[in-house]
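INFO  loader      accepted 1 record
INFO  loader      residues=201
INFO  predictor   begin
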Amino acid sequence: MHRRPLIELLQRYERFWQAAEERALAARFRAFAAAHADCLLRSCVPGHITASCWILAADDSRALLTHHRKLERWLQLGGHVDGEAAVERAALREAREESGMTDFEFVPFGDGGLVPLDLDVHPIPARGSEPRHDHWDVRFLLRARPGQALAISDESNDLQWFAAAAIPAVTREPSVLRLLQKSARLLAGGVAGRAVGPGAM
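INFO  predictor   done
INFO  writer      dumping C-alpha cells
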C-alpha cells in the first residue's frame, strides 16, 4: 500500500509544528506507518490511520461539532480512511458525509503543501468482535463555504456550530480543545489564510 503521501504530510507537519512534543508525535506516526504496510486499512489490527477535520464557518466565527452517536461526545468530524492514500481526501469525504455540506476549502498555512492541523493517537475500546485498537488520527483545518445547510448523518445525535467561547462548555476532550486552540492561534497570528481558486477539491 502506497504510504508516501502520508509520510510527506507528516514531514511537513514536523517542519511547521516545531515544538519538541509535536516533532516526537510526528516521528511516532511515521514509525507506525513504516511498520504497518496496511496502516490505512481497518484490518490493521493494532490500529489504523484515520482522518478528521476542524471545520470553520465561512467567517471563521464558529466551529462545527458533531455529537457522536456511539461515543456520546461532542467531537470534530472524521472517520476511517479505508485505504485512501491521500488522507486529506478521506477527511474531506467525512466532512461531506457527516455535515451534509459539500463545498469546503482547506485553510492554507505553512510554506508550501498541505499541512495537518494536528495529530492524535487515541484508544478505541473493544466492541463486539472488534478488538481494542488505536486510531492514528491526522487532522485538517477546513473552512465551509457560506450558504450551506447542515444535515445530521446516522452516525450523529446532533450537529451544531459553536462559537469558540462556547466549546469548553460542551466538551472537555483535550484533543478537541487542542484543535480549538491551534486553529485560533493560526487565525490570530495571520498564519492561516484563504485558499485561492474555486475550491479545495
